[in-house]
Amino acid sequence: MVSFYLPLHRIKKSVIQSVEKYVKSLRNLRVLHRWLGIGLAVFLLISASTGFLLGWKKESALLQPPTQKGVSKDLIESLPIADLASIAQDRLATHLGGSEVSIDRMDFRPSKGMVKVLFEQGYWEVQLDAKTGETLSIARRHSDWIEALHDGSIVGQWFKLLSMNVLGIGLLILIVAGIWLWYGPKVIRARKRH
Hints:
Nuclear Transport Factor 2, Chain: A, disordered N terminus, 4 strands, four-stranded antiparallel β-sheet
């Protein structure tokens, strides 16, 4: 009879050690999960709220000026790019009281017969009729600075790279830790039953 209980006692001891190992790992993981979550919370809050706003940018004139329509959709009738760039710079400089402005990029919309000229300073946009050069709109693109805040480039490219990597890796760790924190107790209960 003693020989029968001895192996059973050894099995229980190994189960207890196994359970203690799982419990210790869960405690350590809970601490990591908590502090990592708290550390990432500010970045996640900024990323989530700005992401929400960016999802609505085409639906709100406050976030991004609506795309206007020009007279002609035929690109052959468009003014030369250099002329459109010069017109846009002059119109924005006049609008801002004579300030010097630099073009960041030009976005042609042949289906609308217009061109959006986006500027490096102040997130300004000038929309011109591609054929006549008439000003269709001068407005700020709030969606651009929201996007820069969203991805961290508002601080600098180095911060964008750092913050996006920290967020990505941090979220992966939180997901894996969260799954184990949910599943680990189930494993412990199953081991205790055996």
